[in-house]
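wait is this the right file?? whatever heres the structure
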């Protein structure tokens, strides 16, 4: 798609973008002015075009921390089609480019370019329009998306898996307890062997020790490496429920950018794939081309601009997309309260009905 075609598709939607994202209109470079909106459209097109040359054919989603994470920048690169957004990110990029230049003859495999065709969004002139260009451009190119966990979230994910294993699934808990007992027995036997090397001289004891070691190794390998999609779906649901702030800023009453991005993935037929600490999204081939019009109108329909008034509907949408259960990621305060008989009668009286 060339710039003129891109602009023709965006221009009819500028009124919706301005209305539903009125806070951008309060910036110093307000997109309420025609010439500023032109610059933002141009920036969105630059990113849209750059997505087609993404070196790894995948996009990393996540909070603002991922674009400042040195390891992620080194391994996945950033977009930077309009310049780099943060000074800290720029420092990491410059340092890595310098190191690659100094060691260019010692690297056996060419590295992913650190800027220009990377997988992490870092752009000057960021707007919701530019973010939408990332999603739509990447979807049009058939790229995958992966959620990158920021520092601290890895521990939370492991805690959630432990919760699922020990408290939420009796069958798994029973198997884990069995493995723990086997491991404890092995520890006791190993300590006795260290203290008394002659402990295993008895054929029966030696045979039992060897059999227990083999059984534990086999069963633990099977158990810890054969958890299927159903298990990881439970863990991811628990993780996101315990970290709802990744999707919704409850303090300020606004959706996170990640929520906006996930809505786009659902609209454009992406399918979530859950594994150990990995939440990815892929798009079947042959699906219709994504469009800005459909995206922006669905965001408007969900009320993304209405703050906490739309929270329940947005979370229901995301819950259904990710887990097939509209209540999976519901905020507790959004639960439907079923009034008691007494409260119903009181409500009728307050509405002027005599009973």
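ok assuming it is, sequence goes like this
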């Amino acid at each position: 798609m060339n710039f003129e075609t891109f602009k023709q598709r965006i221009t009819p939607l500028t009124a919706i973008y301005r209305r539903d994202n009125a806070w951008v209109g309060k910036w110093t470079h307000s997109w309420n002015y025609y010439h500023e909106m032109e610059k933002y459209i141009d920036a969105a097109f630059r990113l849209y075009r750059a997505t087609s040359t993404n070196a790894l054919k995948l996009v990393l989603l996540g909070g603002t921390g991922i674009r400042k994470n040195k390891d992620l920048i080194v391994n996945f690169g950033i977009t930077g089609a309009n310049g780099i957004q943060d000074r800290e990110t720029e420092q990491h990029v410059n340092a890595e480019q310098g190191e690659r230049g100094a060691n260019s003859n010692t690297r056996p495999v060419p590295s992913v370019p650190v800027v220009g065709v990377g997988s992490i969004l870092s752009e000057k002139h960021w707007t919701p329009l530019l973010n939408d260009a990332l999603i739509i451009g990447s979807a049009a190119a058939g790229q995958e998306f992966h959620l990158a966990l920021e520092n601290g979230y890895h521990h939370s994910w492991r805690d959630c898996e432990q919760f699922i294993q020990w408290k939420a699934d009796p069958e798994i808990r029973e198997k884990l307890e069995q493995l723990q007992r086997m491991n404890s027995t092995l520890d006791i036997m190993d300590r006795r062997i260290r203290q008394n090397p002659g402990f295993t001289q008895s054929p029966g004891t030696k045979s039992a020790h060897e059999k227990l070691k083999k059984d534990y190794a086999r069963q633990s390998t099977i158990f810890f490496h054969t958890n299927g999609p159903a298990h990881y779906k439970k863990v991811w649901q628990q993780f996101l429920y315990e970290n709802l702030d990744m999707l919704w800023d409850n303090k300020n009453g606004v959706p996170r950018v990640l929520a906006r991005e996930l809505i786009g993935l659902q609209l454009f037929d992406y399918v979530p794939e859950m594994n150990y600490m990995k939440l990815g999204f892929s798009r079947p081939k042959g699906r219709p081309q994504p469009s800005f019009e459909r995206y922006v109108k669905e965001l408007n329909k969900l009320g993304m601009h209405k703050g906490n008034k739309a929270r329940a509907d947005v979370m229901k949408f995301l819950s259904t997309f990710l887990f097939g259960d509209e209540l999976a990621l519901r905020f507790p305060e959004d639960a439907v309260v079923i009034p008691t008989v007494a409260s119903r009668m009181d409500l009728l009286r307050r509405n002027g009905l005599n009973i």
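The mean pLDDT is 87. so i think its the right one actually
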